[in-house]
Amino acid sequence: MSNGDTVSAHAEVGDNLLRVAQAAGLPLEGTCEGQMACSTCHVIVAGEWFDRLEEASEEEEDMLDLAAGVARTSRLSCQIDLTEEMDGLTVTIPAESYDMRR
What is the pTM assigned to this prediction? Predict the structure, then answer.
């Protein structure tokens, strides 16, 4: 998979975005196993969706400070639990993430 590919994935309400992305074969590691000790599941949320998410915790913001390719709408996918209001949520994996996993 290369940067710029589009992947659609089915998810149910309550699913975690990281698990959905991994099941779809996307290169998000999430190696901290929920302990908020890494930023390997960093995604950039499309602007029109960003305000629909719950605010990032202080711990998440600290982890994003360590992530490559951070944007104003960056989040950790492991911290996003999907709701009905997020049907159609669009995120991008930063190009830097693809480079680190080659």
Answer: 0.83
